[in-house]
Amino acid sequence: MTLPLSDLTAVLPELIIVAAACLVLGLDPITPASRKDWLAWLSLVSLAVCAGVTSSQMHLRVSAFSDLVLLDPYACFWKLLLYLASGLTILMSLAYLRTERIHLGEYYGFILLSLCGMMIMVSATDLLTIYLGIELMSLSLYVLAGFKRFEARSLEAAAKYFVLGAFSSGILLYGISLLFGVAGSTRLAAIAAAVGSRGLDDPALVVALILLVVGFGFKIAVVPFHMWTPDVYEGAPTSVTAFMAVASKAASFGAFLRVFLEGLGGLKANWYGLFLVVCVATMVLGNVVAIVQTNIKRMLAYSSIAHAGYALIGVVVAGQTEAEGAVRTLGVSSVMLYLAVYAFMTLGAFAVVAMLRKGGLEGDEIEDFTGLAKRQPLAAFLMLVFMVSLAGIPPTAGFIGKFYLFMAAVKAGLTWLAVVAVLFAAVSAYYYLRVVMVMYMRDPEAVEGPLPRLAMSPAMTIVLASTLAGVILLGLYPNPLVSVTTYAVLSLK
Amino acid sequence: MGLFFFYYLAGVIILTALLVVALRNPIYSVLSLLIMFFHVAGLYVTLHAEFLAAVQVIVYAGAILVLYLFVVMLLNVKREDRYHPQLPIGAFLGLVIVTEVLLLAFQRRESDVPPMPPPGSVAQVVGNTETIGDVLYTTYLFPFEVASLILLVAMIGAIVLAKRDLFEQQ
């Protein structure tokens, strides 16, 4: 058997990333400890090359490897978002890892391999391949979460994440095996055909659907499958937390939307109600519990849960059978828009947290931000912008993201859902703005000795500048992104 | 006859799987896991998947289980009281889920059962192992390669998390 060249070009970005990961892992032993930065720059170059390749493939629709992988605009959109998240994570890691004394070359290898898993997730059209992508992503993340292995919290995070992740993978696999039993194939197209011919109330399909919802629910961290999130986000190194909160969530949403719209689209009437309940529960619990958090990473963890809840509004709209096709498309595209916006503001917020890391102490309690405006005016201003954006206040990108989601809900006749979401967005403003208040309204405690040094570097400046630019520019002029997401959604069946 | 074997194997699998989590002594747990693996291999034989059955015995019963036993014996894990605080809640939720699945299972009409896929005609000619190898390297080449990446990650991950003086040079 020979591999047609088109098969290889369809997965060219994945091949580049894997090659770069192997190169990083191979060069690591011969790189002196003071030169580990080179490996980061090598990874960034591979990401830039991939971004070029993927943008040139944006208009293609190529099915490769006996229809297991599909290169379409939808996959390309997620891939570009994932490159962005990975690139910014690597940039913010440079100074942070050095401060934490965990600057190993393997770190970048794992980020790249995890990224490769995510890319497979968003481009696979076969449940087994999607599952393997999820495993590749998760396994790398388990290791990354435990990277500060001399710290109990980090190890706890890794162990918890591993056990619960393995458990949820088991549930997901069980659902996949039931679907395989019904359809005789794990390909989404075959599953869609089987669903179409077998009707809604087939018990095997119902059980499989529930198991898939649970499995994916764990990965995107929605209530009631969110329990692992706060502990893992708090314990993992901050740069890894940012990567998990943004990239892993985006990839999971990418795979999840494809599976439920392309594969299980015929079961809309069944999963619509499920997601409606999960969506409301996630928004309520994520926002309410975030209020009482005193640790900024835990607060951002609950906020990321709440944001997954907002994004689910779009999924609910897509499953609303009474809505017009255009409205359902708007629902999906607003999910994608929201996750892109969410990537900028969350990466920015975590970058500030990583930057403020104090020597010796982690410095991730909200109290540590007291009087930051006087000590570090620039850092405080950046945090202000990201918090305002996360709360969804104009003219930031966070507002645009929420606006499109709520508009989709209203157009689909789900006005009450939009009202609930707005109410809880108002609740969220309380805990986001509390950080701002702590930074600006309180005086810093008198600190003896020199001020703690920031984990600052030119790379960190790039991260902060680009996330700030993203949050502001997308808030003022979202049209290009909106048209890209709309174009990408139309390639979904 | 086939049905009798299925119920025997399935019954033993469920029983031993329950024993794995219910037994207090980890060694006994591991041993009942061993019995379970053998019976799962038996299920594969009834499905004419001889290759899978052999792999199941060699990999799981052979390699993985011995590894478990080594860990249990090296760590000298004594009998422990496990799960107790959460047992009632867990048992209740488990019961709810089992009831639901059973209800759904009995709801099935005979016509709902998907047609049994025809036994692979290729397998009869060239043999089970050869067919699997053929499919793995042609149709499922891509996932197969992804699986190899997963193993790579697992291997390096174990080193990063466990190697002694990895961070000391910094």
SSE order and pairing:
The complex is a heterodimer of chains A (493) and B (170).
Chain A: H1 5-10, H2 12-27, H3 37-56, E1 62-64, E2 69-71, H4 73-100, H5 105-123, H6 127-145, H7 152-183, H8 188-198, H9 203-220, H10 228-235, H11 238-263, H12 268-291, H13 296-319, H14 325-355, H15 372-375, H16 377-391, H17 397-411, H18 415-441, H19 458-476, H20 479-490
Antiparallel strand pairs in A: 1-2
Chain B: H1 2-22, H2 26-46, H3 50-75, H4 87-107, H5 121-126, H6 128-137, H7 141-162
Helix pairs in contact in B: 1-2, 2-3
Overview of this protein structure:
The complex is a heterodimer of chains A (493) and B (170). Chain A is mainly α. Chain A is built from 20 helices and 2 strands. Chain A has one domain. A two-stranded antiparallel ribbon of chain A has the order 1-2. In chain A, a hairpin with a 4-residue loop joins strand 1 and strand 2. The mean pLDDT of chain A is 90. Chain B has 7 helices and no strands. Chains A and B meet through helix 5, helix 6, helix 7 and helix 9 of A and helix 4 and helix 7 of B.
Keywords:
heterodimer; A: 493 residues; mainly alpha; two-stranded antiparallel ribbon; 20 helices; B: 170 residues; Four Helix Bundle (Hemerythrin (Met), subunit A)
